[in-house]
Every structure is written in C-alpha cells, then in structure tokens.
Amino acid sequence: MGCCGAGGTDAGGGADGKKFAVMSAKWDVSPDAIGEGGFGSVHLCKNRSNGKTRAIKAMRLSSDMDKEDFLNEVKIMEKIKRHRNICHILDSGIDRRFGYLVMQSCSGGELFDRIANKNMTEQDAAIAVQDIIAALRYIHGKRIVHRDLKPENVLYKDKEPGSPLKLIDFGLAVQLAPKHFESEICGTTSYMAPEVLNGHYQTECDMWSLGVMVFFMLSGKLPFTGRNDAEKEAKILSGQMSFSAPSWDKISSDGKDFVKALLVADPQKRMTGKKALNHPWITKSAFRGETTINEDVIKTLKQHAQQTRFQRAMRHKMATLLTTQELHQLRNMFESLDADGTGTVSIEEMNHALKDATALDDAASKALASLNLSNFDLDGDGEIDWREFVGGCVQDHHIYNEDNIERLFNEIDTDRSGTLSLKEITSLFGDDHELMRELGAALEKARLNDNDPTNDGKDLSEMYMTKQEFKAVLQDRPEMDIRAATRGRRNAPGQKQQV
Q1: What family does this chain come from, according to its entry (predicted)?
Q2: What is the pTM of this model?
Q3: For the segment 267-317, what is each residue's pLDDT rounded down to a tens digit?
Q4: Biggest CA pair distance of the chain
Q5: Which residues are catalytic, by number?
Q6: Residues 224, 235: contact at Cβ < 8 Å?
Q7: What CA–CA distance (Å, rounded) separates 209 from 192?
Q8: pLDDT tens-digit profile of 192-221?
Q9: What is the C-alpha to C-alpha distance for residues 406 and 460, in angstroms, rounded to an integer?
Q10: How far is residue 427's CA from residue 392's CA, in Å, rounded to a whole number?
C-alpha cells in the first residue's frame, strides 16, 4: 500500500527531449544505471566544477501524484538539511518526465540485503538500529514523519568496516503542524502502525515501523504476515505476534524486550527514541554514536599530528582493526564533519567543521588553533578520509592493545618469518618517499650506534624489526626508540623469535 502511483517509460525528458538535460550544466551523468526499479533509475554523476562523484536518482513522473510526491520530497529534504544518518540531497531538478535528485553516493547496499543474506549478528543489529534511531529523533524534532520506514529505505554508506547507515526515500514524508494529527493512510502495509491504519497518527508511527524492522532483523521474519493487505492489517490491529519461532531461541531477552516495547498499540505508551537509545539492548551491545567532538578529541588529534610519519601511517592502517562498536562510533563522528558526503574532507573544510562542531571553550580553542591538520593527510592529496581521521582521534588504549598490534604485525609479516623487513612495511603505503627517508635515517643511526658488525655494509632492504621492537616504536617507549629497534637480522621461517 502506498500514496503514489508507478509505471511509465523512460521516453522523453528535458526541453531537448534528453534525459538529464536539465542537470547537464552542473553534472556529468553516466549513461549506465547502477540501480533500477519501479521508481526509475540511479546513475553516478560527476560535479563539473570539482570532479566529485555523487549519485543522481531519476524518478519517473507518470502522474500528477508522482510529481506531487517528488516536489514534496525536495521540500522535506530542504527542511531536514543534513544529518550524518540521513542521505541528504545536494541538488534537484525536474522536467516533463522525470524528477532528479543528486545525493550522496551510498555504495554499501540496503539493510534489507544484509538481513535477507543472514549476514547480521544481534550486535550488528543493535549498532544499525542506533543509527536509525538517531535519524528518526532528528526528523521527529522537526515534526517530520517518514511514513515508509523499512529495511529497503536504509542504506550502508559503503562496504568498509563500521559503515554508518543512511535513511533514504522521503517521498511519503510529511511535516506536521504543531499538535496536528495526520489522517492519510500511507506506507508499506507490513510496517504500518495501528494508528496509521486508523487514520489518526503522529511521529510515533515511525517507532512502530522500527519495531517491525528490528523483529525482522533478529528473526528473519515479519511479525504481521498475511496473504493480502487485508489479512496483514487485521493482524496489525489485533497486535498478534509471536516469539515462538526457533530463530528467537538465540536472541537475548533484552532484544525481545526492545521489540515488545516498540510494538505497543497505544502510541502514547510506545517506547520513544530517547528511551530506545537508553534501552539495555542498545547500551550493552553498542557504543553510543552520539559522541561529539570536544576538547579531548582535539587533544588526541593534536597528539597524533605530532607523531612520526611511521607511527601515523601505522595508526591509519590500524583504524580498521578496531572493534565494530568503536569504529562505528568514530566513523559517525567523521560523517558529521563530511558536509558534502564524499567520504573525504579537505583540510580547510575540516578546520571549519571542527570549529562549527565544537562548543569551543578556551581550552578547546587553543588546542584547535595549534592543530596542524596537514599532518593527517598521509597520501598528500589535500583531503582527509575517514581512516586518516579515525587513526588520528582514536585513543591509544583502544588502538594499541595486544590483539591489534598482533594482527597488524602478522598482516605486514607476509612471509611469516616473525620479523618485518623495510620492504614489507613500505609495501603498505606505496612509493612513500617521506616514510622511506624517515626509516632510512633511523636505520643509518642504528648502524652507527648498535655496535653490531652484522649491520655493516647492508642496504635498507636488509634491515629487520621484531614484534617487540615494532610495538615499542609504535608506542614510542623512552627505553627503546627506533634506533635500537632495528637490527640486521632475520629469523628463518619457523625459527623461534628472539625477544
């Protein structure tokens, strides 16, 4: 069930009859669709002024209602502006046959696909739900009701670890006047709240839809099924649902309670977004994603900027070794700074974003003023990506634990000898001349000061580092610096490592 029509063909377009013609002055649109459906198609497009890639959605306008829904979505998105867990629009246009939305490019796929593929743990579900709640609380604060919340309308930003989720498709959304109730019966039947079916509802109906989603995420089944819409509606209105399926046997009691608290028929007794974020199922399973950038974060960024090139490069690599909760939290923090949703932030934009994102007291202002963000740009492209950001702001005790160091060392030690060669280290970062010079200088000093004749005459490719030494260099221990952490030796494969 929905509020809009479908159908139509791709024939026709702008004033010259070509699809995307009205957008071509600013956007170079790829002719190949990356996604298609009853709504139309999605293509990649490149901004002609800065070369950045986005996604453009071409929506068929086969009826007056389609056009009305499109214009409504543009209007709603302009009121929403931007939130880290909402796929915001950057541009829009319309012609005789299509409505166009230029959006962030979200390449991670639908939440629905991960559920359908059974590629989600209960903890993964809790982390995902946290992002959805954050988006709902934001729009509900503006009295906006989504009205079509379902897994197909939630996308992962990308396929990388810790990817944030983005709420999409506001074609059916409505902004309520203060104290006003909406009466239009609208949405996808299986996810509709009882009050929607009764034609008298407010923002609480989205929380019911979230409850249906979580039920589906945890069990792989919808709570209110039927052979047709009439049967589904009858079950929704009766509140009939069951947790007796075998799939629920492995779900925690907190998870079941979370679903029950959302699928409450009376919207006034239904769990709110604020209470949902403080429910034990969320607090025990996921770090809160609401962390803001404050003086402590800026202080950590500053400490990172003062580290050696080698240390910063290794932290960048270790960013993906964090736990899912830690990484997800920090990636959401970066997402709040990434104003245009490209996945990278220029150094200038990062400076502005940090100032705007912090309630700057004197201490934070001083810390930010002395922060050299260019040190975060490891590849020298003038942009900071999420890995560079995460590597800079994660606390040492989170990243420098034994498991992470062990995993990174083993990943670099490609021949499994128990020591690292310069070739193995630098292979991670390409032809990085600055890193080569830094390590080269350190190795030359080691040859002069270690009184080890086995170093004499060896070139850089013959110098090796043990796991203990690698750890000491990363943590910059005073009792063992990089000069003492390099010696011309190599354990043969299978040989016991020296410590």
Answers
A1: Belongs to the protein kinase superfamily.
A2: 0.71
A3: 999 999 999 999 999 988 755 444 445 555 556 565 655 666 777 777 777
A4: 87
A5: 148
A6: yes
A7: 6
A8: 999 999 999 999 999 999 999 999 999 999
A9: 24
A10: 21
